[in-house]
What we know:
CATH topology of the largest domain: Methylamine Dehydrogenase, Chain H
Oligomer: single chain
Largest sheet: 6 strands, antiparallel
Number of helices: 0
Amino acid sequence: MTFLVAGGPAAAGAGGNAAAGSAPSRERAYVANSESDAVSVIDTTTRTYLRSIRVGDNPEIVAFAPDGRRVYVTNQNSHDISVIDTALERVVLTIPVDGPPSDVAVSPDGARLYVTNLVSRDVTVADAVTGRVITTVPIGSPTSRVAVSPDGARVYVTFGGRGTATVWVIDTSTYLVTTVPFGNSPLDIAFSPDGRRVYFTDFALGAVLMMDALTYNLLATIPVGPEIRSLAVAPSGSYAYVTEPQTGRVWVVDLVAERSTGAVTVGNLAMDVAFTSDGAFAYVTVGGANTATVIDTATRRIVTAIPVLIAPIGIAVGRVPGDGPVPPRSSVTVLYFSCDPSGRGAATFTAAVTSTGGTVQAGTVRLFADNTLVGTGRPDAGGRVRFTAPALPDGDHQYAAFFSGTEQVAPSASATLVLRSGPDGACGGC
């Protein structure tokens, strides 16, 4: 077999800095995929899926730290909280809790975590930086949802069971609990931007309940739909989006006029909802379609449905540090080949991807023969992907490898290898 090495990239524009382009947005949506044990990361400006981050077993709820540097994820089956560093984009800490965690909330100063525990009937208070458990606050009932008031003075806790008719309020300075009779089955919790109002979904009543945050009095009952689940208050504070999983609808609730003003159908198992920071779009996890579906809040129309992993539940949107241009590192892809020493003509290709930061272990490498895709793989721990040569007709054939790139590493292409196939395959002359 004879071979030639042709210099230069295999395709115009595929060099090491081809994808530097414009600066990426730094607002992100994090989605907990309960059956994939991973969190999906989405760029909310380009509305594109960026990557997945492995977390614990059966993740359900996601919460941002106020400064955006960390994301906290509840893992039901592994009984812990995964802490993701949003700059490193990996889990940097795992916090064990007492039983399956139902929800997690972060104090406004970013110092404390509050975790509801369905089985142990309490709320775990932990240091948000170190993960050290500070105290456990007994509630005396299964606990489901938790939210911290904007001033950090109170923590509101619900269960959501039919007939529970209770909200528990924890004083964060003393950890004393006030039991407030309220509604029928209050579940999800959200605050007005000024913290004066607290809103709850009540699935048994099919309504959003409005509470005075200081007196705990019921201010309004806003009929919405049966068995509603999650809600998010828009940044303006004038309206909220409420999910109704079984019908696949997202209701729009006018919080000023105190009435529902219609719904957007997104698909079966509309689980959770979060707004972008400017309120222009709402992201909804749709378990039946395994998507994060984006709604334009001005037109109430679906813009796109972004595929995520399996069984998405919780979603959170936030800004992460480093706004502005973040150019990706350049990469180099080199394509090698070797022949079967038995002389049977089989060839094996190896694509090696490196960057200025070392070997690359993410992204996708594609092998092309005569501009036809013949293999796809992900780099291993050494940044290598191995392919078996396809059976091609006798004659010269051009092979090249393309690295897709990641957000941190730019795409690149190998030089082109020209191999002459003979009667015994790609290595027929060996």
